Amino acid sequence: MDRRKEQVLNWIEENRDEVVEFLRKLIQTPSVNPYFDHEPGEAKEGRVQQVVKEHMEALGAQVEMWEPDVEALSKYEGYPGYSSDFDAADRPNLVATVKGAGTGKGKSLVLMGHIDTVARGTGWTHDPFGGEVKDGNIYGRGAVDMKGGIAAMIMAVDAVVKSGISLDGDVSVATVVAEENPGIGTLAYVEKGYRPDACIMTEATSLQVAPLCRGVIWGKLTIEGRSGHIELPRQDWREGGAVDAIKKARMFLEHFDSMNEEWTITKTHPLLRVPCQIYVGKVEMGEFISTYANKAVIYFDATYLPRERDEKGGGSLVMKEIEDMIKGVCQTDPWLMEHPPVLEWQINADCGETDVRHPFVQTIQNNLTELGREPVVEGCYFHTDMGWVEKAGIPIINFGPGDPRQAHSNDEMCPVEELIEATKTMALTILDWCQASEG
Ligand SMILES: [Zn+2]
Questions:
Q1: Are domains 3-213+351-435 and 215-349 of this chain identical in fold?
Q2: Count of CB atoms within 10 A of residue 185's CB?
Q3: 307 alpha carbon to ligand 1 midpoint, in Å?
Q4: How far is the CA of 313 from the centre of ligand 1 (A)?
Q5: How far is the CA of 201 from the centre of ligand 1 (A)?
Q6: Is there a contact between 292 and 227 (Cβ–Cβ < 8 Å)?
Q7: Tens digit of pLDDT for each residue in 140-169?
């Protein structure tokens, strides 16, 4: 192994505690996205961004911090990530750059993550903001989603700088706000004009290399019925008789199932073990035991592939597919023809994909191999912020410590070992991609 690589790996080994401490500090500085329920003092990203800023400045990085300008971004109305309701106060994005010598030998790299988390939630047996370390795991809200990744990426830069290695290309860390909702932080980063030669989004992937993530759509379908006493003889609905919304809902549920079956054939991708699906997660139906249900509401989650994106990068084509299915069901039922259900879209999260053959995807795999780990390349099943970065022409992969299934759960935790491995992998990748400069 290259001497500089050994130097950096030694630094990380000798400073394992510092890596862990930094993650603990990030967890101990809550940054709950204000969209979620939160206790006083837990919300907004401003405070934790200050922690990152101080850390990066101490490394000699140039730090830029700015609150996304909703006005200036309004041209992205209707695009994924944009929301006119976004209140940017005390929610700054941060980009910290360690400048390289810039002879052109090395390329530039950004290590990126969202600094907001979901709410603390319930059912914890550890303090959600304690950063407790137990049996080799670090516990707390954001431990994997995604302060673990952020700690690893920052400590990777730390390791390079503190090992006394100067780079040729620039390496920067970007901690963006508001990924959990609405996704405007990454949009604001791209809009600011940053165009590094590659990006690692350090979302938790259990150290898999994920050059793809899926888009997500949430829908709410409200079906109208008409109430009436169940035990009495029922009149025809045209004469004012009751209409059972539960029965009508069943028709749609059946069609959700058949659409899902169809998707198992049509919506597969070589980097994904399972096809995309449309799945009902919640239903609300009826009022009383003895009354025909006057209303049924079906909530569903649908995932889609980058190849299905519309011209704005969103999921409107998939939405249209679902709308057509619903219209088709209505055509088979006179009541539904006259009383079509109301479909509302609640989330339209975008997706992205980088060609697996891109040299950057190869670089990180080589480094995993050098560290004695079999590289696994597989897409993310959940949404990440990679869409805007990819659309800006920046090759991007997701790669980070921790099991993504831990995200948003109680007792969220990141294994220390994975945190260290992620730090090492990224440090080596910085050296390869940005090139250590001579002398
Ligand atoms: Zn995340």
A1: no
A2: 29
A3: 22
A4: 19
A5: 10
A6: yes
A7: 999 999 999 999 999 999 999 999 999 999
Average pLDDT score over the chain: 97
Q: Which of 180, 202, 47, 51 is nearest to 121 (CA)?
A: 180
Token pair of 129 as six digits: 């903001």
**Reported pTM:** 0.94
User: What's the CA angle centered on 95, arms 32 and 390, to 5 degrees?
Assistant: 90
Indicate the residue type of 7.
Answer: Q
Residue with tokens 């990819």: 390
CA angle 355, 361, 365 (to 5 degrees): 140
From the CA of 351, how far away is ligand 1's center (Å)?
13
Architecture (CATH level 2) of domain 3-213+351-435 = 3-Layer(aba) Sandwich (3.40)
For ligand 1, the distance from its centroid to the CA atom of residue 238, given in whole angstroms, is 51
Question: Which residues have C-beta within 8 Å of that of residue 42, sequence separation ≥ 6?
Answer: 30, 32, 119, 120, 129
Answer for the pair 356, 306: CB distance below 8 angstroms, yes or no.
no
Token digits of residue 156: 């990777």
Query: How many angstroms does the Cα of residue 375 sit away from the middle of ligand 1?
Result: 22
CA of 203 to the centre of ligand 1 (A): 6
Two structure tokens written together for 15: 């400073």
Cα 222 to middle of ligand 1, angstroms: 30
CB atoms within 10 A of CB 39: 12
Ligand 1 centroid to Cα of residue 142, in Å, is 8
pLDDT in tens, 301-343: 999 999 999 999 999 999 999 999 999 999 999 999 999 999 9
Residue 117 φ/ψ region, left for φ over 0, alpha for ψ in the -120 to 50 degree band, beta for the rest: beta
Q: How far is the CA of 146 from the centre of ligand 1 (A)?
A: 5
Query: Domain 215-349 class?
Result: alpha beta
Q: What's the 114 CA to ligand 1 centre distance in angstroms?
A: 6
Distance 245 CA to ligand 1 centre (A): 37
Which CA distances in Å does 102 have to 83, 168, 277, 349, 396?
A: 37, 5, 46, 36, 22
The CA 170 to ligand 1 mean position distance, Å, reads: 25
Q: Could you tell me the strand order of the sheet in which 215-224 lies? A: 278-285, 295-304, 215-224, 342-349
Gap from CA of 293 to ligand 1 centroid (Å): 39
CA of 70 to the centre of ligand 1 (A): 22
Beta-bridge partner residues of 348: 217
Q: Report how far residue 363's alpha carbon sits from residue 374's, in angstroms, rounded to the nearest whole number.
A: 14
Domain boundaries, the chain: 3-213+351-435, 215-349
